[in-house]
Amino acid sequence: MKEEKTTLIKPKKGKENKKETDAKNLKILGPILLLVLGIILLTNSSKAVIIVFYCIGAIFILVGIYNLLAYYKIKKKLKLEDNNKMVLGATTLFIGIMVLLLSGAIETFLRFIIGVVLIYNGLKNVMISLRSKNYFTLIIGIVFIGMGLYTILAENIIFQIIGVLLIISSIVDFIGLLSQKK
After folding, report:
1. How far is CA 11 from the centre of its chain?
2. Is residue 98 very low, low, confident or very high in pLDDT (cuts 50, 70, 90)?
């Protein structure tokens, strides 16, 4: 019988360093994406809202088409009529088309509702502060009323605020990554 020779393969040290470099590059990708998304939301928030509603409408349309196709598949294969699938498919298809067509109106409506809720909370805080003579609650109430009015009158302030927060978050992440290297 012949003796077989076995050899151990030792990993190279250079590959470990390459993996660490790849991991560091992936860590920096997150803050970069947050920064880009934050800048987009801050500068083009009205377009971003419309794109979000287009995506929601497209999802509804796809679900509607899927349910309609499932209905016809069941009807053809099993000779059964599952009207629930047909009604669900037609309804979601209709909702998707309406969301696509009315995306601007939906955005305005949501902005108005959020503004009214902020104004209501502000008025409630003002009334509470007048009864209790608490000036901190009065200031909070006035700020809420101002935010509500600004939300109703200014377009997409919520997405602009989210954009600013994403930019701040990405800057904090960059600082954290730089402090880890030292």
Report:
1. 43
2. very high
